[in-house]
Design a protein that fits this description.
alpha+beta, Neutral Protease, domain 2, five-stranded mixed β-sheet, three-stranded antiparallel β-sheet
Length: 390
Amino acid sequence: MLDVSPASRDTRCELRRHPRVAWTALLALGALLACGRREPVPVTAPTPAAAPTPASRPPSPTPSEPAPAARVAAASPPVEAARTGPSAACLARSADAARTTLAVQRWVDRNGIVHYSDRAAPPDARELRTVTLAVPPQVTVQASGHDVNLPGQLQQRAVADALAVARVLHDTLGVAMPQGMVLHIVFVRSPVAYAQLIGVPELAASAGAYNTGTRTIHVRMQDDDEASFAVLRHEIVHAIVHEAIGNLPVAINEGLAEYFGRYRVVGMGGQIDLGRERAALLANAPGDDGGEALVDLLAPEEADFYRVGATGPAGREQRYRRAFALVAMLMGSGSGRATLAGLLAAQAARPCDAVASERWFAQHHRGGLATLAREWVAFMRNPPDGVRTY
């Protein structure tokens, strides 16, 4: 979710000006650590005007919300995004006013039964004391159909998916689920109406969009409900990441959404079927040691990441597959999860400025960027065949 406005954009990295510079030379010269991106610094975001609110869109939470920003999904994943303003996480989070603990009274009645209640204990209560309990995350779904009926069990499935993904993000990467999160969801059938609602008409062929200004998810209805829920799950990941972390670098942001968007709830847990991605990963694996390809994935501005190449969407879709592979590879080992968790923690500490991810990996991944590139390429050339359970 990089801010691509000229006034706030860092000086473009020399690496992008000279993409054919040898990878080994870049490592030797330390070019990745000296390129134009700066370390994140705290900023005070200005208070923008209230975003325009079409009649079919839920109203903006407050007049101080930033201008709309759309995070957009391609019709058959990958999912793409565009931003027109600063992340709402720079200004406010819906979790700020949410209660995270609850004080209740504990006592034992005359029959020896222990009670917990937020009401006053009876006069004959014994062992009376006040205890503080953690309040589990709450998710509220406010959904509407612009020109189509809503899928069946939308409320239950959206809440279950949000809580399940949030649990895995917390347990594996230390991401705190925002308390009191509200998912505003609008389903749309018409491509014309969809393009008007997301405010990015040139992306009318996409399937889903998360608006960071109004915190609204738009989903273009697919041919079957399962496909629609897959798009929704991807956008829910974006919503959670936006609320909990802020402006992640685009490749990491989309990689997380691609990875956790494939999470399916199973019983009390869930799983991601990596075997289904084997053919796509093999087809999009870099042909060399992966050095330049990894930098090309991590370094571009957001607009460059989503741009469709002259030969069609293959280049953009390739970036999605490779971003998914990077996150999936990191999630497959304890050291990889630790590196990714550290990046997310650094971003959450300063949510308005995207961390320079190539610099982060160069400094914190065991073996640096060269090792990360080799591991990433090896993962794509020999993808795992099976499910990953959480």
